[in-house]
Amino acid sequence: MMDEVQSILPLSSVKNKVFPAVNTILDIEEVIKKRNYFNPKSMKDIETIFNNNLDKNPDGYLVGESLACPKQVTTDNDIIDSLVNNKLLSEFHIPIKYLESDLRKIDSEIKPNISYFLGGEDEALNRLKRKVSELPNFVNEFRKPKTVSTNDETDPREPSTTGLSPYISNGCLSVRLLWNECKVANFNSTHTKPPESLIGQLMFREMFYLLSRTVKNWDDDQNNSNCKPIDWGEYDIDKISAWESGMTGFPYIDAMMRQLESTGWMHHLGRHAVSCFLTRGQLWQNWKIGRDIFDRKLVDADWALNNGNWLWLAGVAPFSMPYYRIYNPCPDSKSSLNVETVDADFIRHWIPELVSFPSKYIFEPQLAPLEIQKKSKCIIGEDYPNPIVNRKETRKENLIRFKESNANLKKSSIQ
Ligand SMILES: Cc1cc2nc3c(=O)[nH]c(=O)nc-3n(C[C@H](O)[C@H](O)[C@H](O)COP(=O)(O)OP(=O)(O)OC[C@H]3O[C@@H](n4cnc5c(N)ncnc54)[C@H](O)[C@@H]3O)c2cc1C
User: Fold this and answer.
1) Is the shortest distance between the CB of 167 and ligand 1 below 6 Å?
2) pLDDT computed for residue 10 by the predictor
3) Same domain, 198 and 133
4) Helical H runs in 285-356?
């Protein structure tokens, strides 16, 4: 890629310098060229790849420093003109006046209550400081599967995890800087380890970058060696619209989807629940439909990670969770989705229709006696939808479908 750029640079006076692996810890191009490279399927595999490619000391892998800001930015008008007028490059040139008008438009569209994750490096560094550098115990005790999917108790928009993904995926925060800040917290302290630790999360990120580079048709369900082509159901516009707009009648799913619409973000376990619900759990729809909706709405949308995680959750990839582990979309306090169920403020915030509902019924409001619905000023079926499917029946049917689809695939691969 860099060779191509260099070959089309029009002037020999244009000096260029290549910074490999700016967006990842590993130099993906170099790693996949090595003879001992293999496609990772697990944290153990990705650790082997790290061991093969990075030096290590007792405190962990040496990932290098993040790049410093340029000390000086100079422009030479002759060079700029020759680049702008170059046949091959001109299509990538956006005149400053268009950028300015686009920025003005975005600026006027930003509504402080809605755009929770404000952009920019300052915001990124500020969040890094607040959530990581100043909280070594949070880093050292971080166990991803134990984090709460319904966000901070005091603010239903504030992640219980770092909330740094919008900044990493948009290039506002160096992944190396985050890694090294975690190492500072870990230094001389007992701390959690991959896959659960924060460093473990960054290693998953590397895994998906490697796979997205090497697996052909990474974003497809056909001819993709990391995806079983399961026989998903016909595109069902009613089910998909209900899912996308947070109107399925399952308050936990709907709250997550409304949060996504409003803030562009959702906790990892919320993403687990809504993707499982759309695919192998309840709605039996192709994972690519959900992937596209996420891609449009996520403020941290990232092609490698979004596809990798949808493959994981749909149960179709070599690294997937077992297809028969289906989340209950009406979680209780014991659910592995880690939901705050006592006050259920997360649900009340995102689904104002249910604001006065008793917590006892709020995750399955259609079960509340009519008297309670009336008292709570929310009649299910009128003010908030009835569930669009029977969760237990669809779970059962889809488990059978998945098993049969799997068996058919095995049969056809033997023939
Ligand atoms: C269906 C689905 C789609 C997803 N799509 C995206 C996406 O488009 N972009 C995206 O950044 N993440 C995606 N994720 C992964 C994960 O949910 C988010 O990275 C995480 O929730 C971001 O919150 P955080 O920054 O607080 O994460 P933290 O737990 O604080 O983790 C720190 C960083 O590690 C990385 N990370 C964490 N979890 C994962 C993971 N499972 N896979 C890869 N990297 C990870 C992210 O860069 C994250 O910012 C998806 C997950 C699912 C289940």
Assistant:
1) no
2) 57
3) yes
4) 287-297, 303-314, 345-350
Residue 288 beta carbon below 6 angstroms from any ligand 1 atom: no
Boundary residue ending a domain (147, 182, 214): 214
Residues 26 and 139 in one domain: yes
* Residue 162 Cβ < 6 Å to ligand 1: yes
**pLDDT (0 to 100) of residue 101:** 81
**Cα dist. 218→87, 274, 308 in Å?**
32, 21, 8
What spacing in Å lies between the alpha carbon of 55 and ligand 1's midpoint? Answer: 26
Same domain, 36 and 127: yes
Residue 112 pLDDT exceeds 70 = no
Summarize pLDDT for 170-182 with one digit per residue, the tens: 999 999 999 999 9
Chain segment 127-144, per-residue pLDDT in tens: 999 999 999 999 999 999
CA 331–ligand 1 middle distance (angstroms): 22
SS3 sequence of 49-84: HHHHHCCEECCEECCCCCCCCCCCCCCCHHHHHHHH
Q: Is 169 close to ligand 1, i.e. is its CB under 6 Å away?
A: yes
- Bridge partners (DSSP) listed for residue 60: 57
Q: Is 155 helix (H, G, I), strand (E, B) or coil?
A: strand
Look at the chain and report how many structural domains it folds into: 2
**Residue 268 CA to ligand 1 centre (angstroms):** 6
> Do 197 and 251 lie in a common domain?
no
